[in-house]
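Work Package 3 (structural annotation) set out to generate three-dimensional models for the target panel prioritized at the project kickoff. During this period the team completed the workflow that converts sequence records into discrete structure tokens, so that structures can be stored uniformly alongside our sequence database. As a representative example, we reproduce one entry of 592 residues exactly as it appears in the project archive.
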Amino acid sequence: MHDTAPAAAAAAWLAMFSDTLAKGDLAATLELFAEDCYWRDIVAFTWNVKTMEGKAAIAAMLEATLESTQPSSWQVTSATGGPSEPLQPWFSFKTKVGQGQGIFTLEDGRCRTMLTTLQALDGHEEALGFSRAMGVRHGADRNRETWSEARARDEASFGAGADPYCLIIGGGQGGIMLGARLKQLGVPTVIVEKNPKAGDSWRNRYRSLVLHDPVWYDHLPYIPFPAHWPVFTPKDKMGDWLEMYVKVMELSYWGCTECISAKFDAAEQRWTVELKRGGKPLTLRPKQLVFATGAYGPPKFIPLPGATGFKGEILHSSQYSDGTKYQGKKAVVIGAASSGHDVSVDLWEAGAEVTMVQRSPTTVVRSETLMELAFDTYSEAAVAAGIDVDTADLLGAATPFALQPAKQKALYDKIRARDAAFYDKLRATGFLLDFGPDETGLMMKAYRTGSGYYVDVGASQLIIDGEIGIKAGVEIETLTPTGIRFADGSEIAADLIIQSTGFQSMHEVVAKIVSREVADEIGTCWGLGSGTRNDPGPWHGELRNMYKPVAQENLWFQGGNLALSRFFSKFVALQIKARMEGLDTVVYRTPL
């Protein structure tokens, strides 16, 4: 017999919640929440990406937004859980401007966490399914314009003086996915990219690069990878997919185009953007400007005393593509996170003698272990159980960042126990291993700092076997003409030094293109404000400045891995579309 108790309990709670909101009785609303409660809202109430922690924060948000949001039609769509575990209902709702979807959890009859998301704007829905375009106007017409003719006209118009509503700087995965979302919402958009073709940002990386995340986690909007696609995507295959995607989604994508400068006119609410397209100057005046230059900004070089006297070659990992010419050479890779490991393996495969200089501990987790323990909602089994990528994304978003550490620590306790022998062998080489300042592992490092971790796809065994040398925990004193001397007096010979030392914040790109003042006003991108190393407080509860309004009007940041770019591209696009249509988008912010 099908158990309807969870759905009935969920519906009863949601009915009380809806009734108290409709009456504006916030005191009664708060009584429905547990003392330790969280409400994460993505655009629906706040026109922001924001998590309210505790009853006081929820009350302040509702006082500021309830009248303008006018939520209604709350309905439970499904519910899971039972007597021994929290009840997790999914629900739909309406706002003054659109349709929403969310998830909440009930513990002892009260709400512990709530997620609300705006999914569509009324009257401006995507043309999908039953509402898709016809693609043809039947009947004879001497003035007919074919699809290819209309497409060519649209493409030519932007280069001939017409201005897009939105300009996206950066044509990698983040810019492409956002461009696709905006296209489906009817927002005139141009994507500009320095490389000649879509996908080149992947093709130009080192030859052995393969995605470390599985295919089920990496789908793009609208066009998922086909069923035969490999679990881990090689970088050139990814580049070809992005190039195909741009064509199929009919995006206005300008390769060989560099953004020189951008200036905002507050009175006109419009940007003046100077471009160089194919070597020729061009000016566009979009309303909205998006920086989609990756999760991070320009390469970060560390100072190396004695560099001017070094007779070899010094590169940043972003400049490295192929180790073939370094066969038989002595290579030193400074940095022991993802790119440091990957570049070291590529050099080893090319026949170089490789030493990795590790300046601080690294969180390492074996790919096989992650696949088994950490990707339960992104897997073939999940798909078979009816959990598609959009469902998995919302499930992940339903846990606020403040509650993630405990879950991640429990996961990494299992990982450390499972792979204890592996970690013992790695430590025995002198490799500095950690799992974060609070033992919460890779994901929390990724959110907090975007650095200091590696998903092991082969480098660790080379380190264990002594094929890749390790010099850990000792400061570099100076470069010599033929290598590196360390503070302990030891030296390593080197023909090549590669700095795998990470990247600066995305706001440094704004400093270069807009101004230093605007960049400083916006502040650092990424990080949660957790107070951990390289992620100073105060606590934000969401990624700094990503996917939401920032201190500079009409400027946005879109980036991150494929999964984050996919999920948040929807909400960045909805925010931009709402502004194009003149909807009231009062952003709810609270002092930090």
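The two ends are 50 Å apart (CA to CA).
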